[in-house]
Amino acid sequence: MDLIIVESPSKAKTISKYLKGKYRVDASGGHIRDLPQKTLGVSIDKNFEPKYVTSPGKEEVIGRLTEAAKKADKVYLATDPDREGEAISWHLQSVLGLSEDGENRIEFNEISPRAVQNALEHPRKINYNLVDAQQARRVMDRLVGYKLSPLLNNKIQSGLSAGRVQSVALRLVVDREREILAFVPEEYWNVTAELQDGEKKFSPFKAALEKKNGKKFKISNKEEADETLAALGAGSYSVASVKKSVTKSHAPAPFTTSTLQQDASNKLGLTAPETMLMAQHLYEGMDVEGGEHIAFVTYIRTDSTRVSSEAQAMAKEYIESRYGKEYYPEKPNFYASKKGAQDAHEAIRPIDLARTPESVKKMLDKKHFNVYKLIYERFVASQMSEAQYDSMQFEVANGEYGFKASGKSLKFAGYTAVYQETKKDDEEETKGLLPPLEEGDGLSCLALKPEQKFTKPPVRYTDASLVKAMEDKGIGRPSTYASIISVLNKRRYVEKDGKYMKPTDVAFRITDLLMHYFTDIMDVGFTASMEEKLDEIEEGGKDWHSIIGDFYPPFEEKLRFANTDGNEETDILCEKCGSRMIRKTNKYGKYLACSNYPKCSNIVGEEGPEITDTPCPKCGELMIVRMGKFGKFLSCPNYPECKSTLPYGEKKEDVLEGICPECGKPAKRLRSKKGKIYYGCSGYPECKFMSWDIPTGEKCPECKSPIVKTPKGRVKCSNKDCRYQPPQPPQEENKQEQHD
């Protein structure tokens, strides 16, 4: 029996159902090999060759697939039809020992019986241009991310990451926020007249003031508004011109990955990662009622608006039978894809138009249904006739001032019978035609409404608008938009204010640091041109090693400068390995670090450790001051035998406060790791008393718990369940204590 290998178990289940047991279908669960997680995994001195290792947890999968491949008459690699899918197939071919020249690669744009069978009849060899394009992207992203992230951790704070595309997307969000912060609103005024024909035969209509002496006119303040209103009040209104026409609105193109994410965000309120998860399930196949397992839509990672002739024929039959022949255009609609789009796949569409949203509503949960309905209706609409409107426009004159009024009514629904496009925030819809007036007709003014306005700052990015910006600027590719947004949220570089993205403080610091040292990587144009170079590898015109080779040396030079900027080599030797120490500076000040990092991670305070008079609570040795990632702390000099540490604080004689109720010794004011003040016995470790409030040295006569004094001067029993009320200090004295 032949073996077909796909990525996901869900996809395997769908294909197995369609092939009715004639083939064995198994899943790799994505990549079985990748770059190592904890090391660079790229041989910089060997032409940037990647070092692949088995992906964590994939040993069992590889064993199972290896045994299945040995028993199979033929092995087909049916991973996704894109660069990533091609690379997964190549890794499978290598690990399973399949022939490099074997025609065992199959692909399909939709998971349907017809498409799968057609793919099995036309197997091909691995496309190494696609594999190289994926390798180049993976290696470049690893070099940038692996090298930049430690720089951020050292200079800003730990736990940060950078990425070739991620950091540029973050810059867009930060730049927009700075535009908003720098924005100064400007005052302006709108004037609207409510007008009616002189004989009052028809309903009133509204017209907006637009011109003065035939030129665009803007009112900047109240004085100008009052002056204009006075002039209008003294004049009379009449129809200066009438324009009647039939306007047309063309159907929108079927969805690409980007436009699907934008529409799902605007209409359904879904994030880009949520949308892609729902779409992935609809593509791979889902369990539905009645024990069926069905795939609903075509491949969901595409930037092409192309539709196959078979799909167009299917749409024509559906539209004409359901809506009428007038709803299908004289010639099928074709849509031009954006420059640089990969045209290997169709646009996103339903596999079978007979599977209407109404017919599957009970099969799917709410989110899956809404995404399917959106895809279905957008595709059907994309193949339909234009919508037509009867439109009318008036120019209204009052002396030197000109007003404009417009209205329209639907004449023929066309594609709008199925799908409504999202209006922009600043669009105002005008419904209904204006009254049937003629040029020269006099008008009476029922009301004149002045309205003060202020210009608004740029709007923060949403998932939808950030995806659109990345697509328009050539940053990333359709398959990466959702993951980039996911990382920005997961790393807390942005926080959501409703549906809008607001950069956090650390986002500004990351962007500023990277802009200071790596202006090219953070440049939108540079990132877009790099995407084009990576695309050239897929087209077969570029060796991927040369593209990385051109990029890396200047990047490494900038990285070296960034890492050593403000650093100074010293004659001090490392106590652990003997290497020279380097004087470095971070946000906490200067410290010494071993030049043999990362093999030796020794760091100490400036010019060596400072000895304190604080004894180690475990072994009694006087503790020393060390410098860590989060600033100074006290460490036992017997490390690593004794690993005791304490927060860095005030000197011993400055922190005695209160009396221990257990042994009578002075209490010390201390600070916890989280910065909260508490009080402990100075006789530690013999006496281990501690309290969050100042101990008075006395005990409660009723429950024997310590009597304590709060920072505000109130004396109380430390047992919150005890009702004993100790005498309070005199009011004046208490106030003086607080003042001191």
Task: Describe the protein.
The structure is a single chain. With 740 residues, the chain is of the alpha+beta class. Helix content is 33%, strand content 24%. It is built from 18 helices and 33 strands. Strand 28 (666-671) and strand 29 (677-681) form a beta hairpin. The longest helix has 28 residues, at 128-155. The chain is globular and about 100 Å long. The model is unreliable at 650-654 and 732-740 (pLDDT under 50).
Concise structural overview:
By secondary structure, the chain is α+β, with helices and mostly antiparallel strands. Helices cover about 35% and strands about 25% of the residues. The model is unreliable at about 650-655 and about 730-740 (pLDDT under 50).
Mass-distribution shape: globular
Report the biggest beta sheet as strand number plus sense, adding barrel if it closes.
Answer: 6 strands, antiparallel, barrel
- Give the overall pLDDT as a whole number: 89
What is the beta-strand fraction?
Answer: 15-25%
The counted number of beta strands is 33
Q: Give unreliable regions as ranges.
A: 650-654, 732-740
Content-based structural category:
alpha+beta
Within the largest sheet, what's the order of strands?
8-9-15-14-11-16
Q: What is the end-to-end distance?
A: 89 Å
Number of alpha- plus pi-helical segments: 18
Based on CA atoms alone, the radius of gyration comes out at: 36 Å
Helical coverage, percent range: 25-40%
